[in-house]
Amino acid sequence: HTGERPFGCQDCGRRFNHRSSLITHRRTHASDKPYRCPDCGKSYRISNNLRRHRKTHTDERPY
Fold this sequence. Notes:
Shape: elongated
Strand order of the largest sheet: 1-2
Helix content: 25-40%
Largest sheet: 2 strands, antiparallel
Order of helices and strands: EEHEEH
Radius of gyration: 15 Å
């Protein structure tokens, strides 16, 4: 809880307190989208965005 952010982005300088957050952030600077929907082919940089999108192919509703 020190507020320390030791992991810095080399592209924009934004800093993070967790290495995993930096890795996720770095994808915003890249053009690759490794998470692809097997139903329609749409691609995402972040796996959670694909997970949310996949629900559009079903009748599942979040509420």
